[in-house]
Amino acid sequence: MRIDIITVLPELLRSPFDESIIKRARAKGIAEINIINLRDYSADRHRSVDDYPFGGGAGMVMMIEPVYNCITYLSSQRKYDEVIYTSPDGIPFSQRIANELSLKDNIIILAGHYKGIDQRIRDHLVTREISIGDYVLTGGELPAAVITDALVRLLPGAISDSESALSDSFQDNLLAPPVYTRPAEFLGWKVPDILIGGNTPEIEKWRFEQSVRNTKSKRPDLFSEES
Question: pTM of the entire structure?
């Protein structure tokens, strides 16, 4: 999978992709992540990428020309399955969307900034808009990192234990069950006996029941989504 992230703050994105699972996936050639400086595609000698909004109002707006130039150049090199714009008013990001996008080959993520982007970019260049929550951040770089992390960890070989990603919360519209490790007792707090007994069918049954219980208690809305 190739993910090209267009941003006005490239340095903000370097660290998240140079650690842990993402770093190993890149080293193995499972994922290629490129951070692209939008200012390199500005026709302005000052490398400007924003301007005042027509009609007045507070804030600055990302201009269409640099974004168009950048996406057009990238698209001349390969075919992209999606051009994603990170926006507070996009579709809420979910595990279902992560699963779907992880099957794509080439993705562009446009990290929004300032007051927003020229609407014509959204109308003509973007194929999907995604939000990571009902709040506003300084820019779309952190959402782009979140989306990238969620996709890469699903790629075959990214995680050494392939079953680990499949048992994550939200994969089956259920939250994950409780997990425990050594010691079996600490300060009088004990691990449930069923997890120590070695009866795999009973353990799996217990885990499913705990997942249902957790979901009903913490995220009952997930049951309505399933229906």
Answer: 0.88
